[in-house]
Design brief:
With about 100 residues, the protein is of the alpha+beta class. About 40% of the residues lie in helices and about 20% in strands. About 20% of the residues are buried. The mean pLDDT is about 95.
Length: about 100
């Protein structure tokens, strides 16, 4: 997968076209999910971790009891790439 940085317009269009439940915040894709409790939040994080490991691409993760906030960006490229969109789509498949 290429590590070319995508423009904000391309990212925004891709989010809409794919029906992804993420928002662009500068050079990051951000998503917050709510689970029933802390155990549910941890189970979600573990599922995300499995997909991230398989993809070789890892989000920043913040857990607050039953809320999990994920941030995706290709730090080595300095912005959003196709890898971020692909992992976002994988993660959306968990909901």
């Amino acid at each position: 997968m290429t590590s070319d940085v995508l423009s904000a317009e391309v990212v925004d269009a891709a989010l809409v076209d794919a029906g992804l439940e993420w928002r662009r915040d500068g050079i990051e894709l951000v998503k917050t999910v709510t689970r029933k409790d802390f155990a549910g939040a941890l189970a979600f994080v573990n599922a995300v971790g499995q997909r991230a490991e398989a993809a070789g691409h890892h989000p920043d993760i913040d857990i607050r009891w039953n809320k999990v906030t994920l941030r995706l960006s290709t730090h080595s490229a300095g912005g959003l790439t196709a890898a971020d969109l692909a992992l976002a789509e994988e993660i959306d498949g968990l909901d």
